[in-house]
Amino acid sequence: MDITVVDVPERGRFEIRDGDRVVGLASYHVDGDVMTLPHTEVDPSVGGRGLGTQLVAGVLSAARERNLHVLPYCSFIRKYLVDHPEELELVAEADRPTFGLATANS
């Protein structure tokens, strides 16, 4: 497996690829210093291999590199943030209650 996470800005998404095959995506929109993350999906045929987690890690890493805050409307991304509280700082403190993340960094 040759897994990569690639930003495809012209399509408004990050893709996770196995070689040349797109096996998942995370859609996004950037407005100013905020990255909105409405949806993530992984091909069910490759489910259970941690590819969704790798995809979200790549998206959040890119947001951090670009000094963006994220709005995690996607439930999978919210769960990732709960499981990885070290990444919670990417969600502005004022936005955390909106996403049920107010106590995630305890």
End-to-end distance, in Å? Answer: 36 Å
Mean pLDDT: 94
CATH architectural designation: 3-Layer(aba) Sandwich
Number of strands: 5
Q: List low-pLDDT spans.
A: none
Number of distinct helices:
2
Give me the CATH superfamily.
Answer: Gcn5-related N-acetyltransferase (GNAT)
Helix content bin: 10-25%
| Radius of gyration, CA atoms, in whole angstroms | 13 Å
As for the number of domains, it is 1
SSE order, one letter for each helix or strand: EEEEHEH
Kindly name the structural category.
alpha+beta
The fraction of residues assigned to DSSP E strands is: 25-35%
Write up what this structure looks like.
By secondary structure, the chain is α+β, with helices and mostly antiparallel strands. The chain has one domain (3-99): Gcn5-related N-acetyltransferase (GNAT) (Aminopeptidase, 3-Layer(aba) Sandwich), CATH 3.40.630. The chain has helices at 51-65, 75-83, and strands spanning 3-8, 13-18, 21-31, 34-42, 69-72. The chain has a five-stranded mixed beta sheet with strand order 1-2-3-4-5. The radius of gyration is 13 Å and the shape is globular. The mean pLDDT is 94.
